[in-house]
Amino acid sequence: RSRFTVRDVAAAKSRGEKWSMLTAYDFTTATVFDEAEIPVLLVGDSAANVVYGYDTTVPVTVDELIPLVRAVVRGAPHAMVVADLPFGSYQAGPEQALATATRFLKEGGAQAVKLEGGARVAPAVAALVGAGIPVIGHLGLTPQSIHALGGYRVQGRDEAGEVLLADALAIEAAGAFAVVLEVVPADLAARATKELRIATVGIGAGADCDAQVLVWQDMAGLSGGHVPRFVKRYADLRTVLGDAVRTYRDEVRGGQYPTVEHSY
Ligand code: KIV
Ligand code: NA
Asked: Is Methyltransferase one of the keywords UniProt gives this record (predicted)?
């Protein structure tokens, strides 16, 4: 099995084959997801929340994300590894975007990058694509703009839907090979999927996107607290892991672990 590439993404769209994407932030989980043949792994800036414990994705830095990208690349020889450009590392313009994306490829070993925004970041997308760096766009609920959006809510309703479509077309025209659509009405995502030649990757964007993406701790039921309605929990890892560590704690306290079979 050779590594999944932008050509495979285009081929899947032309054949009407849907594919899945998951976030990954470390070596061990990357090996699990790669062995499960998840074709694209995203080292999301959601690491801000699930790895570093920040309230939003705004504070996380390139220096905090690059080591995670390196670890995921080491664990995933078959998946395309996409690095998220964090807030403040590309908004200044194409030169800054190119310098940042270059670090994620050279130091991180990523094969592609993702950035948030529409027409305004199209020049940055074009600069990266011109330099040979595959780019995924990200529209709708863009968490790096949370302070401007005023909260985590559905985007692209009514007239805002037309703006989103225009932004998606601008990102496509700039050379992106896919675009994430986050928390937008399903009918809008379906329209975008039809009108775009590039792949749409939905998260809370209905069933008609070319691909889906989820934060792995959400879909595996490891995240605590509130999870958004678009998340399906495929496992209950928080209970499984919590039970395991409580049993371990109790067995150490009670002298049941370790026994002779764990000793030399
Ligand atoms: O950072 C992230 O995890 C993301 C995905 C949810 C699309 O951007
Ligand atoms: Na992100």
From this structure: yes
Third-level CATH fold of 6-233: TIM Barrel (3.20.20)
Quick check: CB of 83 below 6 Å from ligand 1? Answer: no
Ligand 1 in reach of 212 Cβ (< 6 A): no
Kindly state the percentage of the chain with pLDDT values over 70.
100
For residue range 154-168, list pLDDT tens digits in order. 999 999 999 999 999
Instruction: Please report, in range form, the residues annotated as the binding site for Mg(2+).
Output: 45, 84, 116
Domain boundaries along the sequence of the chain: 6-233, 236-264
Judge contact between 10 and 177, C-beta under 8 A: yes
List the binding residues for 3-methyl-2-oxobutanoate. Answer: 45-46, 84, 114
**pLDDT digits 0-9 by tens, 186-222:** 999 999 999 999 999 999 999 999 999 999 999 999 9
